[in-house]
């Protein structure tokens, strides 16, 4: 028997969900929601860190987040493709854990693995609700999550909404610091081979969080994008941050 989740984040590599949407997951977990992450790869092709390093760091991050689920589809790092097998395996996992919301990479992220992971997540989200496909896949009925939101990585966008992560900011920093191999200072040998050469990942993360937090009157924020408008049945429930 698989336990139901409230939210499932789909990430290309270990640390992607933590960096991009870790504050949102921490906020939800603090509110008693059951959150999970499925990584599509082990991150074994990364410029820094071995597979063993990444596995150890992921275990440390899990302890900080108190996740209800951490899974891995074991797809080849650096070569993620939106194949029928990949999307159907993820669709099966979605049906079994029945999250209400799926969080995923943006479809136009600069990193090919991220963009492919976003496409796999979107297609699996849709396929999870097809009854005939569910019957062919096994004994779990069709269940499509209510919402799919994209988080921000290497591409920026105008968000549908921004999550206030100010109350959990220090926890998010501790969470991302679990991935020490990815935060190591850049070396000259990395130049030209790594997109983040010379950049402080924590500093970039804070700059973005402060920018989007300021837009909603908060200290820190994480932007999310919905594919289409969200319904609102009571306009009074939408919080006004004032003229900004």
Taking the sheet with the most strands, its summary is: 7 strands, mixed
Q: Which series of helices and strands comes N to C?
A: EHEHEHEHHEEHHE
The average pLDDT value, as a whole number, equals 90
> Treating each run of at least 4 consecutive H or I residues as one helix, how many helices?
7
Given the C-alpha coordinates, what overall shape results? globular
CATH C-level class is Alpha Beta
- Please, how many domains? 1
Report strand %. Answer: 5-15%
What percentage of residues falls in helices of 4 or more residues? 25-40%
Task: Return the structural class.
Answer: alpha/beta
CATH architecture: 3-Layer(aba) Sandwich
Order of strands in the sheet with the most strands?
Answer: 3-2-1-4-5-7-6
Structure overview:
The structure is a single chain. The protein has about 240 residues and is of the alpha/beta class. The chain has one domain (about 5-235): LmbE-like (Rossmann fold, 3-Layer(aba) Sandwich), CATH 3.40.50.10320. It has helices at about 15-30, 50-65, 85-95, 110-125, 130-135, 170-175, 200-215, and strands at about 5-10, 35-40, 70, 100-105, 145-150, 160-165, 220-225. A seven-stranded mixed β-sheet has the order 3-2-1-4-5-7-6, with helices on both faces. It starts with 6 loop residues before the first strand and ends in an 18-residue tail after the last strand.
